[in-house]
Amino acid sequence: TPFRRASAPAPAPLAPLTMQTPAAADASASDSLDALLPPAAPPGVTAPADFDLTSKDYYFNSYAHFGIHEEMLKDAVRTGAYHSAIMDSPHLLAGKTVLDVGCGTGVLSMFAARAGARKVYAVELSKIVEQARAIVKENGLENIVEIIEGKMEDVELPEKVDVIISEWMGYCLFYESMLDSVIVARDKWLKPGGAMLPDRATLYLSAIEDATYRRQKIDFWDNVYGLKMETIKHIALTEPLVDIVDPEQVMTDTVPIFTIDISTVKKSELMFAVPFALEASRRDFAHAIVAHFDVEFSKCFKPTGFSTAPHARPTHWKQTVMYLDVPLAVDEGDVIRGTFACRPNDVNHRDLDLAIKYELKGQYFTGKNLLRYRLR
Questions:
Q1: What's the CA dihedral at 112, 114, 116, 117 to 10 degrees?
Q2: Is residue 222's pLDDT more than 60?
Q3: What is the share, in percent, of the chain residues with pLDDT greater than 90?
Q4: Which position among 176, 239, 269, 332 bears the catalytic label?
């Protein structure tokens, strides 16, 4: 996928600007999760913009089609990291029992079998299980890998396992809430001292200049052949963009904001509100906040992992881009401070509600606001 190019050189000095902000961003507002993201709150960046479209019914059916699995298998960063973590860790897998949560085509299960696992239980809810069984048999591993159709929360295994493998990550790390099922599997089926692959993940934020895209896709709705269509602009702003960001667009430092240990994390901890501070590395406009994540396999013989950062080799997760209500004019050294909140949507658990409460007291811009998004 080609990069979206950084669009403009650093702007000339500007006259100082003070932004008038709505009551939602009043200094007395709390930074708690419930204050930033009430369970029933509609998304809104410049105005509330909710509408009744969800991915609930689509989710599992989409994973029955081979196309989505082709995209994941061709992601060399993703599949290569899992292959290395599994095949290079005989001390974890040889002669052991393994559970693969959300096995898809069964590729990770077959890696585990070839790494010496005694038995692999591969659980999958979508109808791709029919093809997975055929693929396992085609590779002569049907005596080791058992494909089980069902929801992980409802599946009963004949024994506990030594290792749990899962590729559960979604856009912005937590989209689709598949980690919930992994936690259920861990608590119910993993032996004491058992291994999780992967076992750590970290979410990061940065800010980018992206005037060209904003002008073409967001501000376009301000004037459509002389007609105003701000109601659609409100909706467009509340839906994060999943795309590859040119590393040259990043104009602040990149900061880790939330790390989870998958061996111990609780489901309740996956709803959070955490502070951030992004220091500008040059004079420019900040048009959006970008989220990406890193994943670690620290228990492997040779610890490995991968990054979905703009500067890293692109993956099918790309980056998650959340456009701000207005461009922020920042000088080098200015700091955008705020709180980032995340929780599963109250109606459709696989959608992800996000909020950014930011404040900038810079040389050329002073302002703050509370912005809500929905990743669906």
A1: 40
A2: yes
A3: 80
A4: 176
